[in-house]
Amino acid sequence: MKTELKYFKSLHQLGSFLKENRRKQGLKIDDASKILLIKKSILKSFEDGDIEISNNSHFKGFLNSYIKFLNLEKTCKFEFTNNNKLSSLDKPNFQLEAPETKNTKYSSIIILLSLIVIGFIYLFWNKNTYLNLYLIGTSIN
After folding, report:
1. In this structure, is residue 120 part of a structural domain?
2. Which residues of the chain fall short of a pLDDT of 70?
3. pTM of structure
4. Which residues lie closer than 8 Å to 112 by C-beta, 6 or more apart?
5. Sequence-ordered list of residues with C-beta below 8 angstroms from that of 37, at least 6 positions apart, any chain
6. Is 26 left (phi over 0), alpha (psi -120 to 50) or beta?
7. How far is the C-alpha of 57 from the C-alpha of 61, rounded, in Å?
8. How many domains does the chain have?
9. 92 lies in some domain
């Protein structure tokens, strides 16, 4: 039996198709929710067509999982249309660089000097290391 691929342009049409096929298979929405680990309210919103998924990749994935769960991936196809074609690059206040802070000029110098001071403190605090360095220096001369 060859099934015809149906294209849906609205989520409401797809949702009623999914609901009809789920009922034909004798499945409850609670069972699908438990198996897919998707909230019942989200699946119900898919079936009612009450959810906006064009900009939400999670909902697109949930919908694809639900379609595969009902074994309808070869039967139906939903075209995700994005009416809001405004790219984030087109926004006038979009910045590619992070705003400069005044603390970044001197912070690397302060960190470097702190590490040098800590190194000298450790060197003089540990007398064995200091004596070993002194002995190595005198044996070279």
Report:
1. yes
2. 1-3, 54, 79-105, 130, 141
3. 0.53
4. none
5. none
6. left
7. 6
8. 2
9. no
